[in-house]
């Protein structure tokens, strides 16, 4: 497979991951740790969640650029473009398409969340498999682990914990919608195995 085809597929799977995230948001039973912070900040600031998601990812991308010993600006430009499409896709489905229908039954919302998590996991796993586009948070943690004595897993879980705690603090102090719920637990248990399977 040529690099051009891999890059095209990577972009499509990037957008598939964004679609999966949008489904988990529609389910309204909580979201993953990082997205719990995104959703909380979106409600607090009245900025669309896809925009918040892309913005926070851009911050990690800047961190990656600073830590990367082999800076290739072309790669970072490509990742930046991918993030813009990623955030726009989340906004498209969350604010324009999914509001056209509603789900009231709790079991259906749980099933929708599981479906969204699986789709997001497959998209993420395939992107990681092709190794052309990267996810800024994971790349940032990888660079940190290479420069310190702590592992990738340590930094990744630390970011998850910080996201959850920050989301909870905002929720309590500003009386926002609680985003750290059962969906957060489901995502924690399901997402990594799906990513690992799709990456093979």
TrEMBL record:
InterPro entries: YczE/YyaS-like (IPR038750). The keyword Membrane applies. The keyword Transmembrane helix applies. Keywords: Membrane, Transmembrane, Transmembrane helix. The chain crosses the membrane at residues 12-34, 46-67, 76-98, 104-124, 154-174. Signal peptide: none annotated. PANTHER family: INTEGRAL MEMBRANE PROTEIN, INTEGRAL MEMBRANE PROTEIN-RELATED. This is Integral membrane protein.
């Amino acid at each position: 497979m040529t690099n051009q085809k891999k890059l095209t597929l990577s972009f499509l799977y990037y957008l598939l991951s964004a679609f999966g995230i949008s489904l988990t948001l529609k389910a309204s039973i909580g979201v993953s740790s990082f997205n719990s912070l995104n959703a909380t900040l979106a409600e607090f600031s009245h900025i669309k969640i896809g925009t918040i998601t892309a913005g926070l990812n851009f911050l990690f991308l800047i961190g990656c650029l600073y830590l990367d010993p082999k800076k290739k600006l072309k790669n970072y430009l490509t990742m930046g473009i991918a993030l813009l499409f990623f955030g726009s896709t989340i906004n498209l489905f969350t604010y324009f398409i999914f509001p056209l229908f509603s789900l009231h039954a709790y079991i259906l919302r749980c099933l929708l969340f599981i479906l969204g998590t699986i789709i997001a996991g497959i998209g993420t796993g395939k992107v990681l498999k092709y190794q052309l586009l990267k996810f800024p948070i994971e790349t940032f943690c990888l660079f940190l682990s290479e420069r310190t004595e702590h592992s990738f897993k340590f930094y990744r879980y630390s970011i998850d914990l910080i996201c959850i705690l920050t989301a909870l603090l905002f929720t309590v102090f500003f009386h926002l919608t609680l985003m750290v719920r059962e969906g957060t637990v489901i995502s924690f248990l399901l997402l990594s195995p799906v990513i690992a399977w799709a990456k093979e």
